[in-house]
Amino acid sequence: MASAGAGLEGVVATTSKICFIDGDQGVLSYFGYNIHTLAENATFEEVIYLLWNGKLPNREQLSDLTKSLVAERELPGEVTEFLRSVPKDAAPMDVLRTAVSILGLYDPLARDNSIEANVKKAAKLMARVATIVTSFDRLRKDQPVLPGDPNLGYAANFLYTLCGKKPDEIMERVFDVALILHADHELNASTFAARVTAATLSDIYSAVTSAIGALKGPLHGGANEDVIRLLLSTRSPDDAVQSVKHKLENKQKIAGFGHRVYRVLDPRAIHLKKMSEELGKRTGHSELFEKSARVEQTVSELKNLNANVDFYSASTYYSLGIPIDLFTAIFAVSRMSGWTAHVLEQYRNNRLIRPRADYTGAPDGQRWTPVENRS
Ligand SMILES: CC(C)(COP(=O)(O)OP(=O)(O)OC[C@H]1O[C@@H](n2cnc3c(N)ncnc32)[C@H](O)[C@@H]1OP(=O)(O)O)[C@@H](O)C(=O)NCCC(=O)NCCS
Known about the structure:
The protein is mainly alpha-helical and 375 residues long. It is 58% helix and 3% strand. It contains 16 helices and 3 strands. Strands 1-2-3 form a 3-stranded antiparallel beta sheet. α1 runs antiparallel to α8 and α9 packs antiparallel against α10. The two termini are 36 Å apart. Bound molecules: coenzyme A (COA). Coenzyme A (COA) binds next to α15.
């Protein structure tokens, strides 16, 4: 039996039509649409449609999707009650993971694993994941949950129901682009987790619950929170550089750098860097961008590592006024579109995912020792 390298590096585990990455050239596309094309032209709703259907929507299809995402925003009362009941200092990713799992209990379609039912459940998940994050944040601050505005698109409604204020056009577009950039990324750890769960023919709620659990780790989506904490813990760009040098001398990793697949700059980081700079100027957080740019330069010089998607998304979200501990949850809100697309693709052409392990333990045939004789 051939053995895969540590962390399954370089292993091709499935076929998929959804997302293409060329890590040597820095190319990322969803169904053949380059990420730069999408970041410059698409709305997040168009990208959701693309990921689920493999093509861009016409006007009517887009309008239908937008309406269904608005119609499904409201949470079952039991889920809101759960959000009200959790400790106010609970980690948002833990709350999100559990709340998404609870959603399945109150969906009459939960046990229907037909493609039609799963398409409907994907829309519910997509709409409600945002409501869970914004509602939890408001409830923990003793603020009333806002019902959302049916005239606002996905990105604008998220910011409105989070902050209680409608975003201006620039804030809305920045957030929309951030959602587009995080929407899918081939067989990353959380998407793989979702596909493994779906491949047992378990339900879509279980699959995305697995994914959220995988995303929260600091080697995956959790990195964006670590990035901002590092930046905010330093007094100046020079201090940020010193702090990073110190970490590297002590063989510590710098959050927001390195990637399993990209050997050149992550194409998503290009847009996030630009947005971080522009938004920083508008919102008075330019120093955060300056620190980020100096840290990027230092890590590049000392370790030859590039910034990944999490590095500049940190300062971008901070400048949007988003609470730090929601950063990873926002990644989950966007990635819900990719997870559900992959789960639907898995169901359409399923085979159980069950690899083998290269056993390195004691040989078979160990002698049994009664408990009283064991040392
Ligand atoms: C993303 C990541 C998990 C990829 O991991 P990987 O492919 O398993 O790569 P490794 O952890 O084996 O790293 C390979 C080498 O680069 C170094 N390296 C990788 N990322 C690094 C980072 N962020 N800071 C400093 N060194 C890093 C490792 O220490 C290792 O060096 P060594 O060979 O001298 O021991 C890794 O780069 C990382 O931990 N990054 C920080 C967390 C992060 O930003 N995650 C979000 C990813 S989008």
